[in-house]
Amino acid sequence: MYESYYGFSGKPFQLNPDPAFFFGSRGHKRAFAYLQYGLFQNEGFIVITGEVGAGKTTLVRSLLEQLDTSKVVAAQLVSTQLDADDMLRSVAAAFGINIKSVDKAELLATLEAFLCSLLTQNKRALLVVDEAQNLSARAVEELRMLSNFQLGDQALLQSFLIGQPELRHLMQSPQMQQLRQRVIASYHLGPMDRQETQAYVEHRLTHVGWQGNPKFEPGAFDAIYSSSAGIPRRINTLCNRVLLAAYLAEKQTIAAIDVDSVANEIKQELGPTAVGPAPVAPAHDGARPVASANASALEMMTGLDDRLARLERTTTAIIDLLHQLLQRDRQQKQGGKAKG
Fold first, then answer.
1. What is the rounded distance in angstroms from the CA atom of residue 122 to the CA atom of residue 116?
2. How far apart are CA 57 and CA 40, in angstroms?
3. Is 259 helix (H, G, I), strand (E, B) or coil?
4. Which of the residue ranges 21-35, 103-117, 261-275 would you say has the lowest mean pLDDT?
5. What does pTM read for this prediction?
6. Could you write out the DSSP letters of every residue in 124-145?
7. Above pLDDT 70, what percent of the chain?
8. What is the H or E stretch that residue 48 is in?
9. Are the beta carbons of 51 and 164 closer than 8 angstroms?
């Protein structure tokens, strides 16, 4: 693999979110600050949205790693079209509450008792709902009802809703008026600019011990930004493939033509939307979410990202095999010269 060839200690552009690789672009720093602000407020909802692959999950995991677990009990829930009843049971399960077959009233009572017990221990409860755009309106309403739990003047549960731009559209619907009143702040995480894209690539490379080999020409970073539109997951996919191609060709320098060649390969394999311009990010508007109209494109991108991950694994296996064959061929040639 190219990691050992270039002397890396690990894989710099893996697709799985890893807080160890967190890069603080202007947008990510501001989104992180909103999450921290929410923790300070200890009530209501914080809403963070962003395009597919914008780095929302990495952002949340970075926050969770920094929490003082002696003061905050956090539970993370990845929503998958949950209805109202499933939402309550999923919240209970996320907090480790053993729920048997009970009715809704008993379920709510159990959740409230658990949250009260945390407060008596001077602890706070935080619920992070990832992929929140998949929630039904009734499921979101159940979350709002849970936010009503109080002991004295203190809220028992705080929630962060993390999702794609469709979440903002959902929250603009008339039935979400009461929830909007509970939203402390919202932020849309947009793509990185050209300079941040280069810094992001260099940050991830440096994290695994990169010392300038391979060298990236300035035009290569221009091409990476042009093809990825500053979306972190697209950058990871593209750069991983670029390094694989450079490794196979035994290159020590990566130029714009190398990036463009790989980007064209990805487009031919997965379609023109696999890399390319990102949708225009909605402007940040404080606590008032705005609608975004790219649902079908985003659904397509989600499927493409899954296919990219599978293709990456397959490509890695093929490259490993080719490398073994190349090494065997070199050894045979060297052996033949030695005999001669």
1. 10
2. 21
3. helix
4. 261-275
5. 0.76
6. EEEEEEETGGG--HHHHHHHHH
7. 79
8. strand 45-50
9. yes
Angle at CA 184, nearest 5°, toward 297 and 104?
Answer: 80
Q: In whole angstroms, how far apart are CA 275 and each of 16, 69, 271, 299, 302?
A: 18, 39, 8, 15, 12
User: For residue 122, how many other CB atoms are within 10 A of its CB?
Assistant: 8
Q: Hey, CA dihedral for 304, 139, 66, 59, is it positive or negative?
A: positive
In the chain, the amino acid numbered 245 is A
What is the C-alpha to C-alpha distance for residues 298 and 260, in angstroms, rounded to an integer?
23
Spell out where 66-198 has E strands: 72-78, 124-130, 150-151, 154-155, 158-163, 183-189
Contacts 24+ apart (CB under 8 A), 307-313: 307/270, 308/15, 308/237, 308/266, 308/270, 308/274, 309/15, 311/269, 311/270, 312/15, 312/237, 312/240, 312/241
Per-residue model confidence as pLDDT tens digits over 286-325: 433 333 333 333 344 444 444 544 454 455 455 555 555 6
Question: Which letter does DSSP use for residue 248 in this model?
Answer: H
**How many residues are given for the chain?**
340
Using alpha carbons only, what angle is made at residue 278 by residues 272 and 285, rounded to the nearest 5 degrees?
A: 160
List the structure tokens of 329: 């061929």
Q: Compute the mean pLDDT over every residue in the chain, rounded to the nearest whole number.
A: 82
Rounded mean pLDDT of 191-207? 96
Per-residue model confidence (pLDDT) at position 169: 87
